[in-house]
Amino acid sequence: MSSALSSAAASVAPSVVPTGSDWRAAAAEVAARLRATAVERERQGKAPRGEVALLRHAGLLTLLNPVEFGGGGASFADAFHVVRIIAQADASIAQILSYHYLLSHSAFWRATPEQAERLIRASVAGQWFWGGASNPRDPLTVLTPDGDGLRLNGRKTFASNASLADRITLRAALGDAVVLLAVPGESEGITHGNDWDAFGQRLTESGSVEFRDVRIEREHILGPLPPSVAVELPALTTLVVPIHQLLFVNFYLGTAEGALQEASAYIHSTAQPWQTSGVAAASEDPYVLALYGELHSDLRASLALADVAAAEVERAIRRGNDLDPQERAAAAATVYAAKVNSTRVALDITSRVFDLMGARATSARYGFDRFWRNIRTHSLHDPVAYKAREVGNFALNGRITPDPLYT
User: Fold this and answer.
1) How far apart are CA 304 and CA 306, in angstroms?
2) How is residue 71 annotated by DSSP?
3) What pLDDT does residue 13 have?
4) What predicted TM-score, i.e. pTM, was given to this entire model?
5) Cα-flanking dihedrals φ and ψ of residue 66, to 5°?
6) Cβ atoms within 10 Å, residue 240
7) What is the dihedral of CA 28, 32, 33, 37, to 10 degrees?
8) Between the CA atoms of 101, 104, 105 and 111, what dihedral angle is there, to the nearest 10 degrees?
9) Which residues contact residue 147 at a Cβ distance below 8 angstroms, ignoring those fewer than 6 apart?
């Protein structure tokens, strides 16, 4: 890690759990420290160990865990805002925090009540960082009996956070059934490919992972064992995909906010007015004002839609396992509308900020291109056209295409 970031992590009191409005201040402090080294760290491309330490020491890893278990007791609506704030400085770190929130809670919601309490308490006590290896387009990993336990084998080409994770969640075949696992990240037989080389989201540790005869105990299998697995999963688990998508929405919009913030600072400090503009400062150029106003307006509208979606998701979460399919579909449709809109707006803003700043802003020393590269890279992982189809399907026909892994 960079020395600057190492010092930043050390200067934040360890295991501080934000309460009330403190989470916003904690996220803003982390974002400020990340922003100061963002260009340097992306160029170095090192595993984000220092960045995870910064999140851990600021108490953001345990933000969503219940107060009675030592966590921050915050809501997912709070977590969406935290992710948005972090993304203003570093979209890669916003992504890994997003995946941590999602993957830990997908495990808690799938676990038995006894397992869930044990996992949450251990996660808070150990300040665990959660990862996953559940890309459904890869073949399933496979569990085979081995004495009084099991062995896990298989490979995933995309594994979010896994190389740094204390627990890795993934789906695996157990006979004719599919189970969800929470595997200790340091288990013998886990090999990380370290082969993520995309032009954006460079610090997300999104490379491949292989499991070779990894020992799996009963406690690592979440929920009841086959054949006693219920036909239908608890209703809360059906919200995992919409929550995942809304986390994406918020780090897309946070990235767009960050790009506009950088553009504003550059316009005031460095940009020169065009020679025929008739003004003394770039910040007074009528075309700059008009374009900035257009982009700012689009962003504000997209943020408002994201907040509406967050409120609907929060209501659905509060319904718990009483959530009915139509309520779930309505919340998901609003989330997917926000996803479609935020993808367009974020790509547009992160590209067009250069029209505000001018040619000199393309200098590599500024690294302003990282905002667009990050959004472009991540938005291709989940084709937005498929989410637009779901928005239309719900608006026209009142339904969402049934796919528990994508919708």
Assistant:
1) 5
2) S
3) 41
4) 0.94
5) -60, 145
6) 18
7) 140
8) 180
9) none
Reduced 3-state DSSP string for 146-197: ECCEEEEEEEECCCCCHHHCCEEEEEEEECCEEEEEEEECCCCCEEECCCCC
- Compute the distance between CA of residue 250 and CA of residue 115 in angstroms, rounded to an integer: 30
CA distance 276 to 147: 81
Task: Give CA–CA dist 154/260, Å, rounded.
Answer: 43
User: Please, are residues 249 and 306 in contact by the beta-carbon 8 Å criterion?
Assistant: yes
d(CA 115, CA 125): 15
Q: Do 145 and 159 contact (CB within 8 A), yes or no? A: no
From the CB of residue 66, how many other CB atoms can be counted at a distance below 10 Å?
16
Two tokens, residue 111: 């676990």
- Which long-range CB contacts under 8 A does 60-63 form with residues at least 24 apart? 60/18, 60/23, 60/26, 60/27, 60/30, 60/97, 61/97, 61/100, 61/127, 61/128, 61/129, 62/17, 62/123, 62/124, 62/127, 63/17, 63/18, 63/23, 63/101
How many angstroms separate the CA atoms of 108 and 175, rounded? 23
pLDDT of residue 21: 55
Taking the CA atoms of 318, 322, 326 and 329 in sequence, report the sign of the dihedral they define. positive
- List, for residues 204-261, the tens digit of each pLDDT value: 999 999 999 999 999 999 998 887 655 467 889 999 999 999 999 999 999 999 999 9
Structure tokens at 114: 């006894």
Q: Please give the pLDDT value at position 9.
A: 47
End-to-end CA gap in the chain? 37
